[in-house]
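Summary for the funding panel

The consortium committed to producing paired sequence-structure records for every protein in the target list. Below we show the first two records in order, beginning with the earlier of the two.
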Amino acid sequence: MSLLINLNQEGYESLKSDLQIVESKIEELQLVLSELSPSYSHLKQFYEPNIKIFFDKSRNPNHYRAGISISLPERIHKINHSFKIDDAKDYKGINDIELVSLSKLKARDFLVKKYPQYFE
């Protein structure tokens, strides 16, 4: 590939060739990306789950719960799971850093128990 382009017929031909090479490589990489993306998206929900934390005052003592949605290939709809994180009295609110950290740990534990085949 040429970095310096001659502004003449030779430069044009060289640039045209380089562009075709780059376009071909981009198409090849897009194909690889399209093959990898579905598997990555599926696994990401187990290793980087989207955790929704909510305050549950329906039980005594009040506590925080977390919700996770999982899509499985054999299911049409997502599966919603929720689990207790901890008592509310120990945290400053839904965005408390310690609560968020604990929710990630508990989510991982929950997913490992519920879907062990993804963690073997």
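The next record, for a separate protein in the list, is shown here:
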Amino acid sequence: MKKLIKNTFYLAGSNVFSFFISAIGGFVIAKILGPEDYGGYSAYKLFVSYAICLQLGILQGLQREIPFLRAKNEKENLTFLLNTAFTFIFLVSFIGIVILFIASLHSSPFFKKVFLITIPFIPFFFFKEFYRFSMRGLEKFGELSLLNVIDAISIFLIVVLFSLYFKGEGAVFGFAITNFLYFIFAYYFTKIIFFKFKIHLKSLKSLFFVGFPIFIVGFLNIIIFSLDRLFILGLIGRKGYGIYAIALNFLNLIYQIPIAMSLVLLPYLTRKKAIEGSVSRFVIKNYYILPLFLVFLSILIFFFYPPVVFVIKNFLHKYEDSLPVLKLLLSLILFPSINYFFYSFLIAENKHFYIVPYHLALLPLTLILNSVLIPKFQLSGAALAFIGSQTLFTIILILLAYRFIKFHFIKTVFSLIMLSLIHFFIFNLIF
């Protein structure tokens, strides 16, 4: 447990610090570029996240299969697993290159140019994700934390520099360069393994069966939880997208806490599953963790919001329209933030594939929410649709977790809902 707390502290601390640096860089970039070019820069990063989905969950499989093999002390199979994953994503990255090249032929002048100039760097977007997932599975959270900080600083310096001279196109090109630098630093600092370009079918099969459901859920997450931005891009334009992106950037600072805690928790839970056969005992014994986490997150949000208002009003005048959106998001985010924990419980139990049909049903519901709320309430409607879909997803995960992992359902869920409601009312009363 001490190791778990220490790793959580390292990763959460580095995530918050690096994201804080990234956020400052993002705000500087937003000020340099203006809403239109900043919207284009943000949209490019969204499109790249779509391209990375081509790896079909092989990378996601690493975060469970690595600790599972380590718990079983199967070192040779672990080497096969890492070699297979690295080779597979290297080959798949070329499909991403072809897709972006085709997309460039049918895009606006801005996106045509940025797609073409960043094509040589596409494999390094994939390599960056490989290192992130493999280090989580290997529980190398110290090295991962260091890389997060280095990555944030390099993005800040390089993207800002290129933005000053080349505006939106320069920001995108600088972002692509930072992924290449991440690969160099990751290999230098970690040297996880000497990679051989060889695919072992057994390892590929195990990665696929574990990772593909995670990929499907992740892909649906990208689609479902980015529909708000796609609707904004289509109905309001790049300027509205840029304003909304600022609110999400601040929100993502808060999200780094549950993300880091769940990432550290997953390999620990997987080892529990490999040794004890289930994670139920851990969840029952430590039921108080989630309510305590929400209390901590709520207090953090209350201290976080006033400085954010000051920064936007004094340094980001063009983005003041993001404040009502951010206030709405921060008042409602508490309950949806726990979805990361229940998702980790299901992955550790290898029951995460049961999420897929429910998630497919969530897609049309989210489409309806966005199509109704955004035309009526504009950016605030997008925030409501985002929180609404996140809340539904959290409810799905809680119910599925209870199906496979026995815990004190009423006691746990009631406390989480009450804490979320108390936070909402007090936050709106004060701010």
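Regarding this second record: Residues 213 and 311 are 41 Å apart (CA to CA). The chain has a mean pLDDT of 82.
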